[in-house]
Amino acid sequence: MIKVYTSSIIEAPADAVWAQVRDFNGLPKWTPFVAESRIEGGEPADKVGCIRNFRLKDGGVIREQLLTLSDYDFQCTYSILESPMGVENYVATLKLTPVTDGNRTFAEWSAEFDCVPEREQALAQNIGQGVFQAAFNSLKQLVR
Amino acid sequence: MIKVTRSSVIDAPIERVWAVLRDFNSHTAWHAIVAESAIENGEPSDQVGCVRNFTLKDGNHIREQLLALSDEDHVSTYCILDATLPMQRYVATVRLKKVTDGNRTFWHWESTFDVPRGREREFAELVGKGVYEAGFEGLRSYLRQSRAAPAPAPRRSARGAIRSSAIVIGRHGGADELKLAEIDVFPPGPGEARLRQTAIGVNYIDLYVRTGHYPLVSLPGVPGMEAAGEVIDVGEGVTGILPGDRVAYACPPPGAYAQYRTLKAAELVVLPEAIGDEAAAALMLKGMSAEYLVRRSYRVEGGDFVLVHSAAGGVGLLLCQWAKHLGATVIGTVSTEAKARAARAAGCDHPIVTTQDDFVARTREITGGRGVVVAYDGVGRDTLAGSLEALAAPGHLVSYGQSSGAPEPPPLAALSAKSVTFSRPVLFHYTADPARLREMAGNVFDLVARGALRAGIGQRFPLADAARAHRELEARRTIGASVLAP
Questions:
Q1: What does each C-alpha distance from B98 to A7, B15, B29, B55 come to in angstroms?
Q2: Which of chain B's termini has less CB crowding within 10 Å, N or C?
Q3: Would you call the peptide bond into B253 cis, given omega within 30 degrees of 0 as the criterion?
Q4: Is the bond into B394 cis (omega within 30 degrees of 0)?
């Protein structure tokens, strides 16, 4: 089981950042790599258990299920149901914590998953930097 | 019940911030509101259960107890035992998290407590601003100071020399012979570099240089083999070291007990971000000693039983941590219960208090009669014969120090009786080769970055108080490393 952890500071109040990321269908808005997204079955995007079905700009399709959502803790957890990445048992958590000094946000994104040993390093790098950090950078521009 | 929460971001790697915050008595160095502070009963300042007894600059007096400490999660929890302030049931938690984007640190500080009715706002402000926010600022300044920050302009004298305070020995003898004086530190010649030193390591060899037991200085001379600081200028032909670099060294000749120093650039190791100046001064000589002891004199392997004397000493604590990291079972000798606790916290599985127990008998018991595969003996005269007895056959006896006096050489017959490999190593023979020096220092820094090795600074003294540092070391009152601040 590999663990990936990426964290960053976003120069905006935590509730403003949370308003963006709590929308499980909002990836096209705050990440640079998602072209379009929909929630299957027409369910609300903040309903625990709903499934987002989204297409990456490079063509790949991913389905992810929302497992937990807490407006109190600014935290959500989700799992990958299908993806072209070659990962299994993939569960990720996105959590925000207010930084009182400067009224900004400490954002943490972590994932645990299984994959073949030869791909561990490349996948950790792709997910940690290519997905999580890239998304944080894009989010920073959005909430500025 | 009031809850106060404050958080901030510190522009330094989490290992550096945690190295300071995990030390329950460090607040006197970085928190402006603290006047004086000490840990009660001589306990180590990272020992869960220890109590810090301190006064604030406004005259208030507080005693706080460390309830929990986790190096893995970077969490420290403590409570107030008593205070001259009307705060009840105050429990606080400091939690650090790594900010991978920029290799910085997120610091979360939170507490709950009760105060008299009507004074909630007053105390929420006092704690939130006066303690927590002031603490963030204080630590920031403290960390900036020990980096290449604008330093006081040095006073210059003839031929470009810098006037530097230093500890000078006029003649060999007791700790009183260490006197504060001013010396000239000349510009670096070819192959040399001049440093402004920020932290100086105290080592046993300094005692021998002072007493004359090791004739390494011509008098009057400056003792000290280890320090960290910032490069001011470099001489001709120096490559790889630039003015402004943060460096450290552990090498002869003596001369480290000074504010400024010019020495061979080849001896300098550039410090990684994660290692602070103070930590480097505590780790270079002792850390590289532990490195060669467990990786070169005898390669410790998982499952080995090892014996470490003075397990709570400067090198001892590092040996416990390193041997544990390699998977060994560590048996250690110490002279007090407090030292036993410190050794245990550093990974010593079986600390033996020698005033209560016979270490040879206990070692036989612990190893099921077999003995240890290696004994690391820095004590010498008082222990060497016992270390030999405690060995398994075949065994390794590594005599690397003599804090109790020079040992008698073991007779050859005693060595063949157990196929003993006996070595009497000296660090500087290993580090004389620049490539090996860098390899050894690199191995030390690597383990620190991985959290397997900690600097363990037990005592800090101003440079002017070097005599007191020597007295404490000689009286066996110290735990871990002692560092002087110029």
A1: 7, 9, 23, 32
A2: N
A3: yes
A4: yes
3-state secondary structure of A130: helix
Using a 10 angstrom Cβ sphere, with 0-12 exposed, 13-18 middle and 19 or more buried, the burial of residue A28 is: middle
Q: What domains appear along chain B, each with residue ranges and CATH number?
A: 2-145 (3.30.530.20), 162-284+430-447+456-485 (3.90.180.10), 302-424 (3.40.50.720)
- Which residues, 6 or more positions from B357, have their beta carbon under 8 angstroms from its beta carbon? none
Query: Could you check whether the bond before residue B220 is cis, i.e. omega within 30 degrees of 0?
Result: yes
Give the span between the Cα atoms of B78 and B94, in whole angstroms: 9
The CA distance from B9 to the nearest CA of chain A, in Å, is 8
Nearest CA to CA, how far is B74 from chain A (Å)?
16
CATH number of the domain bearing residue A111: 3.30.530.20
Q: Using the 8-state DSSP alphabet, how is residue A30 labeled?
A: H
| Beta strands at B420-423 and B391-399: parallel, antiparallel or unpaired | parallel
In this predicted model, what pLDDT tens digit does every residue of B465-474 receive, in sequence order? Answer: 999 999 999 9
Residue B484: C-alpha distances to residues B116, B167, B179, B277 (Å): 44, 11, 14, 11
Tokens of residue A137, six digits: 């950078």
User: Shortest Cα distance from B73 to chain A (angstroms)?
Assistant: 14
Chain A: residue nearest B11 by CA? A9
Give the structural domain span for A85.
Answer: 2-143
Helices (H), B148-297: 204-211, 277-292
Domain tally for chain A?
A: 1
B104 interfaces chain A, CB cutoff of 8 Å: yes
Q: What is the ipTM of this complex?
A: 0.93
What percent of chain A has a predicted confidence (pLDDT) above 70? 100
Residue in the block written with tokens 């499934």: A51
Which residues of chain A neighbour B97 with C-beta distances below 8 Å? 7, 106, 108
Range of weakest confidence among A4-8, B40-44, B234-238, B364-368: B40-44
Give the Å distances, CA to CA, from B114 to B25, B90, B135. 25, 7, 21
Sequential DSSP letters for B417-480: HTTEEEE---HHHHHTSHHHHHHHHHHHHHHHHTTS----EEEEEEGGGHHHHHHHHHTT---S
Q: Which pLDDT tens digit goes with each residue over A99-127?
A: 999 999 999 999 999 999 999 999 999 99
The residues pairing with B269 across neighbouring beta strands, listed in sequence order, are B248
- Render pLDDT for B245-284 as a digit per residue (tens, 0 to 9): 899 999 999 999 999 999 999 999 999 887 889 999 999 9
